[in-house]
Structure formats: structure tokens, C-alpha cells
Amino acid sequence: MKLPQLQIGNILPKFPIVQGGMALRVSTAPLASAVANAGGIGVLGATGMSEEELREEIRKTRRLTSGPLGVNIMFAIKNFPKMVYTAIEEKIDVIFTGAGFSRDIFHWSKESGVPVVSIVSSTKLAVLAEKLGASAVVVEGVEAGGHLGTDKPLTEILPSIRKAINIPLIAAGGIIDGKGIAKMLQLGADGVQMATRFVLSKECDVSDSFKQMYLKAKPEDVVIIPSPVGLPGRALHNPFASKIIQGEKITPENCDNCLKKCSKQYCIMKALDNSCIGNVNEGIVFAGKNVHKIKDILPVQEIFNRLIREAKEN
Ligand SMILES: Cc1cc2nc3c(=O)[nH]c(=O)nc-3n(C[C@H](O)[C@H](O)[C@H](O)COP(=O)(O)O)c2cc1C
Question: In order of start, what are the domains of the chain with their CATH numbers?
């Protein structure tokens, strides 16, 4: 099929592919710049960074690419407004926001001219996002990695949301190849957001043990875990996941109250950071449902070549 032109505000990426933002330091400058250079929209996962770290990461990414660059900032974090201001000050091209819904961000977007994309999983929130001024929505189905806002498959929620809104719709959750992209475009999406596929890229900065867990994953290893944020999350099974699924409380050594609301069952920032730096058994390894279908670690450019070829063939 012919690939459509995705437009978010004034951003016109060569291909309608967004790399999903991934906390904690899973999507950083090397991955986001490689995606932007390959023709997609590269996205930094800002959650878990300080404002200064985010500022530095944006500057670092800009030195590596002149392509479209976004940040993903979770609404659930306390320093959400400051992170948004920092991204705006650094002249980011687009802000993606999920894990809760911010109304304020649309005022900041209007003042600054920086487009905002809301990550939603229901028609209600998609319609609200459009009404408040979102430039596009990411519609995330239950297949997605990370925090989940629905228990419904993407193919079930996408058609009704498509009918309800006129702004661009970006489909996310479980898309790992060009066939999956073509399917979403045929269902009315203007583009796709993919995260898990890009973890298994040469450029993704995450520890090798994180990538090896992805490569070894079987379908039954992908589980739903509770998150202190108050949403379920999709991750790979490991000793840490076992403990938290059983309801064990893992009190962190210190807590800087980084979330607006936190169940305090365990520290999600510490757990995500542990796996990112290689201590996978003591951490959470977020992954999408179709992780087991990905068999190789490739350079981002090669992933794009394949995705585009396969999508055009379908
Ligand atoms: C390791 C990992 C970390 C993630 N972190 C975030 C995040 O910080 N904010 C967010 O909105 N989504 C996050 N997500 C969700 C992705 O951005 C994306 O929408 C989703 O994973 C798409 O499904 P896929 O991974 O099957 O492609 C994360 C996903 C993964 C796999």
C-alpha cells in the first residue's frame, strides 16, 4: 500500500512512523536521533530524568539529527509542568503525553506553538483531546508495552475512535513489522507508534541483558504487572515481576515522592532504572505483547528499510 503523509502541527516526517517514548532512559539521544535520521519521528523518554538531564538530552539529540524530535512526558510525574517547560524552551518539535490526562498542557501548547499529542485508549479521551487542541492522538491498545489504559485490543478500539475524531490518529500496541503497519493504516490510522521493535536496535542504549530478555521471550513470558502509578503495565516475567504480582511490598531505601499519586508498593523509577542498567532480575522490563516475534537486533536504518518495504507490499 502507499504510505500516507503523517502531519502533526507543521511536522511532516518522511514516513508515518513514531518511535514510542520509553522511560527510564530506554529511548535517549542515540535511538531518537537514528529514528529521526531514518525518516520517522524520534522520541526521548523524559520520565525519570531531571529537567537539566532532559535539556542536555535534547541538545545532544539535536547535534545528531535535524529530523523531527519529540519528548514523551508522563502526566503522572510531579515535575510534569517543569519538564514540559524545559522541552518547550529547548524548542522541541512535539510533546507526547500519557499515563493520565493533562488539560493544562493545551494552554502551554497554544502559548508556545509546540504541538501536543495525547496518548489515549478510549473514544471519550480522544474526543476531549481533540476539543482541547491536541494536534493528534496516539491510540494505544492492550498489546502495548508499559502502562496500559485499556484491556481492549487495538483493532477493537481504533475504528470507533477513528469515526469520532478528525485529527491524525497514530496506532500503537503490538506493531512490530510492515504488515502490522499496513493493517493499522487500512483501519484508518494516519501513522503508527512502535516501541518494542526499537528496543531491539543497535542504537537503543539499554543494557544488553535487557535486550537478551527480549530476544529470549516466549509468548507466556509477557505478563501484566501492577504499577504504583495506579495503572497495570505490560512487562516480561522475572523474579521482580513475580514478587509484585503476588502483592509483595518492596520498600525503597529512599523516596523522593516523584509521582503525583503512588501506591508505594515498590519504587517504579528504581525498578525501571535497575533493568535499564542491567540488573534485570531486580527490575521491571516493560515490553509489548509481540516481543517474542522479534528475532534480531538491527541498526535502526535497517529496521526502517524492512518496515517500509513490508508495509508497501501489504
Ligand atoms: C520499555 C518501554 C518503556 C515505555 N515507556 C513509556 C513512557 O515512558 N511513556 C509512555 O507514554 N509510554 C511508554 N511506553 C509505551 C510505548 O511508548 C508505546 O506506546 C508502546 O510500547 C507501543 O507498543 P509496542 O511496544 O508493542 O510497539 C513504553 C514501552 C516500553 C516497551
Answer: 17-205+295-313 (3.20.20.70), 208-291 (no CATH)
